UniProtKB/TrEMBL annotation, chains A, B, C:
One of its GO terms (biological process) is methylation. Gene3D superfamilies: Naphthalene 1,2-dioxygenase Alpha Subunit, Chain A, domain 1, Rieske [2Fe-2S] iron-sulphur domain. Keywords: 2Fe-2S, Iron, Iron-sulfur, Metal-binding, Methyltransferase, Monooxygenase, Oxidoreductase, Transferase. It comes from Marinobacterium lutimaris. This is Vanillate O-demethylase monooxygenase subunit. Pfam families: Rieske, VanA_C. It comes from the Bacteria. InterPro entries: Cholesterol_7-desaturase, Rieske_2Fe-2S, Rieske_2Fe-2S_sf, VanA_C_cat. GO terms for molecular function: 2 iron, 2 sulfur cluster binding; metal ion binding; methyltransferase activity; monooxygenase activity. Residues 27-128 form the Rieske domain. Signal peptide: none annotated.
Length: 363, 363, 363
């Protein structure tokens, strides 16, 4: 890496001193379970440079990504039975950050240790807790995501890196009216249909829910491929915002056959999990999965759905990064709100309140 | 784009507050006509981030490159009959910056508009006016460039991007003595011939004229290819500086047959148009064309002349960008003037005077 | 080069004003002799932008890398019999920085000259002296390196560029215990053997000597290929630190046959020369050679030894650059010393003393 380029973690460490730019007292997604193999992962999360690893017995750990001897990132080391070994002089640390061994000397210096973070793996996700000074230990459990253990669904996912603040990605997901303009070539379809959909925005506690129904419409190609629809369909889009992630449940039933409001509705479902974890105030990790319930050819349709989702997110990334660059360019200029901003603005107020410390741990 | 890299328009916007680094009350070239097809162009000019586009009826427009809703550059949008549509949520703006439509709502908010710039297309060039606060509207017409409509000539051109201030490119063009050193491999020829040429520097108003005659010399290969010279030739180089562009008229006649001073002289002509428009104080757009009057094989020779010009400018770009990097490295060191600097220094005084506001609109 | 990226020499020039970050009153390696062919080399050394060149008669010269006319780096120019000619307008400078010619005018302006640096080529190395204000001229000769002229040895080498401060490379070379962790895939071998070796650290004046003996061990593949060892060997590693370079003499004799302490010991030898010359406070040039005394197939084994050394240094570069990035990221965190740091820490104290001005010229 070129030293003359700004380093996200360095810049962030400096800014971090002042005030929290993100809610701290909550669980964030640090990785998808499938990412943690036998190699450590170095990743900056909420301005903290972290090494994530899984020991051969399957346990996941997160330490500060720095050997206390001469600062080499521990992510350049190797994972062993009892922990992670530094790739420079071989110091060995366990999952709590305790130094177990300094090669070539009998005694481990008293000051030889690194910080550890609370992590918990569940539902194929690895969650991490940073916490404010008063809440360095988790005050609750990470949220469950039952879709990943529901046998009716197949799913897959990935990780995107965005050069943009996390809240711009919240905005994007909470307002699917952009489908007709950004995703012309993929899932977009007819812009007017999306813009004209019935929309309802609700909030409860630290969550926001945006529901859109598109009745009596033509099912998109992916839908007809995955499910034997008879003709027209009634479609729904349900977006549920939580400070650590969004859940987007879209789907369709044969037109005029079922209530779209029932959680037990049939038809074809696509359920997206979207966890945006800030790297810094200006960059984000985007962990996502999409689960679906194809009537047949489960594996094949799962693969197609995953590929299409990835292409779609790639389109969003281009737009959101360009948007952020331009926001900095025109930093002093006011933005004009329109009707689709109701959901996004409500989510921003929740984050703002949490950063100000007016909230209990939320996910 | 990587957020940790400096962004020209952002940096520029900040500096812009203080004092003009460029003359503002004049027309600049914003694009070659041929660049404006059915896609919008995003371009920073004089520190302003601009989107240029041509509607299907042929009209050219220039707006600030930012949707007033959520800041996406309008250059990511699409051009329609009535204007440009944002690529995020579909707001539509006409060529004056007025918002015509906000998809999904009936009323367009009163504050929904973007700034527009004065543009005029003529002679295959697109001109733009920024203007000082007192002169936000053009106080004159853009200059004509009749060569582009003269049937005796064929021409083509292109655009270069320089990581260097525009005045370093003026210097380079006003002093063709560098041909023998920078352009050894292309149009250079014998360094001593160039250095030994008769030179005359004249000035009038906001223009500078450098004339060099090289009598009784061997015509370069391009010349003999394009024109049936008998033997030795008398060559001329006429460089005409205007604050917005330079015109370089070079050519040759059979030795001792005609006066080199007559504008009606015969022989072979190459006429260069060179408009250097600052992107920022540290970077420039270089719009150029070269027109020639081959006796035969017009298209073929036009192609060769254009390719050779492009190669030559590529050589200049390498030298000028290296020069500028080194100027910053040795910022506190004085430069020593030599005889070839008379023309360039005169042009610099004109620009300085114009920045100080002592000039009427010039081109 | 992109103007918006930080330029090492520019940043350095600014910092340079305050206090020396490196000992100034000593010779540094500026190049390997073999680097200086008929093309000039531009290189920043100790924050100074320098052009190095060799005139056709073989003389080596070093000037500030800037034409005094319009600042083009002289390294963009061409070398002639009497000096170097600028690649923009053709000014010609001799090896003392005197301007001999300004093309197109008879008189050379009095102020037309550039600074020259003291250089000396010996033992296949080009040395340069910068000097403090009080010692702008060398107060001693550069150190000899007789290995390069010793007929028992064959050698070759190269230059690496590190995005890391020079002292991190000193640390690395003075502590070969990292071999077992960083160089697993090349010369590493068994980590425990390296860590368990007998070690002795000595100091004298401005030098540090670290000696490690590994008795009765299995010779590595390179050793058995180069020399007819009978079975087990006694190996030595001798590291000699001088402020301008390190000498690393490693080798082996048949086990229990000779004293490892005698400079006349037989067996197979590999002698490394490692000169780390700061480019800036944050980056370094690393000039190296490795000499060996193969019993047979000298050329072939010289080639293999050189290639293996290069691969090894590549591994060090990755680790040291990552270490430096992380040091900046965790700038406020203390490092914990372990037993292997004795040699490196002693060398750091010498450099610190020299920067404070408490030392006579050292190499």
């Amino acid at each position: 890496m070129n030293v003359s380029q700004a380093d996200p973690a360095t810049l962030a460490q400096q800014q971090n001193a002042s005030k929290p730019e993100f809610p701290l007292d909550m669980w964030y997604v640090a990785a998808l379970s499938k990412e943690l193999t036998d190699k450590p992962i170095g990743r900056t999360l909420l301005n903290q440079s972290v090494v994530l690893f899984r020991t051969p017995d399957g346990q996941v750990a997160a330490l500060e990504n720095r050997c206390c001897h001469r600062d080499l990132p521990l992510s350049y080391g190797t994972v062993e039975e009892s922990g992670i070994r530094c790739g420079y002089h071989g110091l060995l640390f366990d999952g709590e950050g305790k130094c177990l061994e300094v090669p070539g000397q009998d005694k481990v210096p008293r000051k030889a240790f690194v910080s550890a973070y609370s992590v918990k793996e569940q539902d194929s996700l690895v969650w991490i807790w940073f916490g404010s000074e008063e809440n360095s230990k988790p005050s609750c459990e990470p949220p469950r995501y039952e879709v990943h253990t529901d046998e009716r669904y197949v799913f897959d996912g990935g990780v995107f890196y965005y050069e943009a603040p996390y809240q711009l990605i919240h905005d994007n997901l909470l307002d699917l009216s952009h489908l007709g303009y950004v995703h012309l070539r993929t899932i977009g379809g007819n812009a007017k249909v999306h813009m004209g959909a019935e929309m309802k925005v609700e909030g409860e506690g630290d969550s926001v829910r945006v529901v859109r129904h598109m009745r009596n419409s033509t099912p998109p190609p992916t839908y007809t491929m995955a499910y034997p629809f008879e003709d027209k369909v009634d479609r729904w889009q349900e977006i549920e915002f939580h400070p650590s992630h969004l859940r987007i449940w879209t789907g369709a039933v044969n037109a005029n056959t079922e209530s779209l409001d029932s959680p037990d509705r049939g038809g074809f479902h696509m359920r997206g999990f979207h966890a945006i974890t800030p790297e810094t105030a200006e960059s984000s990790h985007y962990f996502w999965t999409v689960a679906s319930n194809p009537a047949t050819n489960k594996d094949e349709i799962n693969k197609i759905v995953t590929e299409q989702s990835e292409m779609t997110f790639e389109e969003d990334k281009v737009v959101i990064e360009a948007q952020y660059q331009n926001m900095k360019r025109f930093a002093d200029r006011p933005m004009v709100d329109i009707h689709v901003d109701v959901g996004p603005n409500r989510a921003r107020r929740i984050i703002k309140r949490m950063c100000a410390g007016d909230s209990h741990a939320a996910q």
